Each structure stands twice: as C-alpha cells, then as structure tokens.
C-alpha cells in the first residue's frame, strides 16, 4: 500500500513536470516573452531605487549605494518611452503570431495562409504595413533600453514579410535568408 502511494505521488509529480515543460514558450512567443520580461525588469529597478531614496530620506539614513547618483539618474531610461514601448509589445506579439503559422521550422510555406485567394490579398502585406507603422511609433520615442530591441523585432518582422511578399509575387524564395531571420527571432 505504501509503495502504491509513493508510486502515485511520483507519477503525479512527473505528469505535472511534463505539463510544465509542454507549456514553456518557444520560438516567436519566447522572443516576445523575453521582450516583455525585460521591460518589466527595467521598469521595476528604477522604482526600487526611488523607494530606497525616499525611505533613506525619511529615516535620515545615508543613501544606499545601489540607489545610484544624480549622474546615474540622468542616464536612466526614459520611463514614458519605456511605458509606451511596453504598450506596443502586444501589437508586436500579434504580428509575430500572424507570421508564425505561415513558415515552419524547415522554411516550408503554407501558401493557403500566406495568400487569401478569395480577397486576392497577401497576408504578409498586412503584417509588413502594421510592423512599419509600429516601427515608426517606436522610433519616435526617446532613447531607452527597450527601444533598440523593439526596433530589431519590428525590422525582422518587416524583413520576413518582404521575403514572403516576394515569394507570392515572383514565385522565388530565398529559403536560407528566411530561415536565418526566423532563427534570429526565435533566439
């Protein structure tokens, strides 16, 4: 009886582990998850430093060394820009998710998803246009640590969209270039 109970517990634990591993984001979702995690961390660090400064002033204690100096505060990220870029991350995720099912890991293209015959339109044109609009919004923001990463992600979405548009229009695809761009976004 004890053996069966232990065996059931081990089986349940292994099943929980398997479910957790299956739910780990990969590819495009991992890129956006990393992006949003970095944004969250970047936003919380200055708030923690500000809290330390306020507490030290209230209790008339010396400012902790991790709080930073005035020079550091001037070089800190622009909170408004970071907040605006963070707000745009959901749109980036939507664009990535729109492209994700079109191209598989081997570079094969699902033409039914890429080209809408009924409306005679290329889906990648929409992702290209939206990512260019998003890129323009991001470039207008002040300098912050998240801006460069967001610009890179948008540029890769534009590049992948261009490759897919070229495929539909000319029938020619640079599979190597497409896979390279997809792999970079997946890292």
What does this structure look like?
With 187 residues, the protein is an all-alpha fold. The chain has one domain (1-45, 77-186). The protein has helices at 2-22, 27-58, 70-75, 79-99, 111-114, 123-140, 145-170, 175-186; strands at 115-116, 121-122. The protein has a two-stranded antiparallel sheet. A hairpin with a 4-residue loop joins β1 (115-116) and β2. α2 (27-58) packs parallel to α8 (175-186). The longest helix has 32 residues, at 27-58. It is flat and about 70 Å long. The protein starts with a helix and ends with a helix. Residues 57-75 have low confidence and may be disordered.
Provide the succession of SSEs.
HHHHHEEHHH
- What's the total count of β strands? 2
Main sheet strand line-up: 1-2
Q: Average pLDDT across residues?
A: 73
Strand content: under 5%
Instruction: Indicate the radius of gyration in whole angstroms.
Output: 23 Å
Tally of DSSP helical segments? 8
Morphology call: flat
The largest β sheet comes out as:
2 strands, antiparallel
Structural class: mainly alpha
Q: What share of the residues lie within helices?
A: over 70%
The domain tally reads 1
The N- to C-terminal Cα distance equals: 48 Å
Q: Low-confidence parts, pLDDT < 50 over ≥5 residues? A: 57-75
């Amino acid at each position: 009886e004890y053996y069966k109970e232990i065996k059931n517990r081990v089986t349940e634990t292994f099943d929980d582990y398997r479910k957790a591993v299956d739910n780990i984001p990969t590819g495009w979702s991992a890129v956006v998850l990393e992006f949003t995690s970095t944004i969250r961390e970047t936003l919380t660090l200055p708030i923690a430093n500000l809290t330390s400064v306020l507490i030290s002033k209230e209790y008339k204690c010396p400012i902790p060394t991790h709080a930073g100096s005035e020079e550091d505060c001037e070089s800190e990220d622009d909170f408004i820009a970071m907040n605006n870029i963070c707000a745009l991350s959901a749109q980036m995720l939507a664009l990535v998710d729109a492209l994700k099912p079109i191209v598989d890991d081997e570079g094969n293209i699902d033409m039914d998803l890429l080209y809408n015959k009924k409306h005679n339109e290329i889906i990648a044109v929409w992702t290209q246009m939206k990512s260019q609009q998003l890129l323009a919004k991001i470039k207008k923001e002040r300098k912050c640590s998240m801006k460069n990463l967001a610009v890179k992600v948008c540029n890769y979405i534009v590049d992948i969209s261009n490759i897919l548009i070229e495929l539909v229009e000319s029938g020619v695809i640079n599979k190597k270039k497409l896979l390279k761009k997809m792999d970079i976004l997946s890292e």
